[in-house]
Design the sequence.
């Protein structure tokens, strides 16, 4: 069956440190993988998209890697700030069903000042 | 520019009732998708519409239906509400054409079924 698994535990880190989140998937053949941020009671906000032929992508303090052999994506927040506290969702398409994204359950990050 | 707008933001219904949720996509976006998010889980795909045609449907019962209007706005209808339908219903639009691509979500409609 298809599965998308993110860090099962919430992540608590000190301000200024790097947060690293994982997203592992099974029985998907994605053309791309996306990361979203979601604050409590709000809709998800798009952060980054990485395609299957890209190894790494950066945007400001964010970095995403995508390893289609390991079927894994890593999401890094460098120089973390309390404002980065949120739930982060990974999402991927499936080539045969390109009309939808499948989401993981998310990882909640709390950055302590 | 206005983002994706959804209404109502909150609503309470009782079991067996029917509900209609509304969504206006970002101007110029022709694709609208609906997702259900239960507390503690990621969004689950319900429908995608592109150019007023249903392109895909998720694993939801026939009590769930949707449509897209000529102005690309959309409605999600849920009949015979069950307690388990309590969730945040998210609408998202995309300017990527038929494929999903990057999604722009609204703030959601929080449905509570008593």
Sequence:
């Amino acid at each position: 069956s298809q599965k998308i698994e993110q860090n099962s535990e919430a992540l608590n880190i000190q301000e200024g440190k790097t947060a690293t989140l994982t997203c592992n998937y099974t029985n998907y053949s994605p053309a791309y993988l996306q990361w979203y941020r979601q604050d409590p009671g709000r809709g998800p906000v798009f952060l980054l998209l990485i395609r299957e032929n890209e190894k790494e992508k950066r945007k400001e303090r964010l970095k995403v890697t995508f390893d289609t052999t390991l079927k894994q994506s890593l999401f890094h927040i460098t120089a973390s700030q309390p404002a980065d506290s949120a739930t982060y969702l990974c999402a991927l398409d499936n080539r045969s069903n390109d009309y939808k994204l499948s989401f993981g359950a998310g990882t909640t990050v709390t950055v302590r000042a | 520019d206005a983002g994706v707008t959804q209404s109502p933001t909150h609503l309470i219904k009782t079991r067996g009732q029917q509900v209609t949720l509304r969504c206006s996509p970002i101007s110029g976006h022709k694709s609208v998708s609906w997702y259900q998010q239960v507390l503690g889980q990621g969004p689950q795909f319900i429908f995608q519409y592109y150019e007023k045609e249903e392109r895909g449907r998720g694993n939801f019962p026939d009590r769930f239906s949707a449509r897209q209007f000529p102005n690309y706005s959309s409605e999600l209808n849920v009949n015979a509400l069950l307690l388990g339908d309590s969730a945040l219903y998210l609408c998202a639009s995309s300017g990527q054409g038929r494929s999903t691509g990057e999604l722009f979500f609204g703030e959601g409609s929080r449905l509570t079924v008593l």
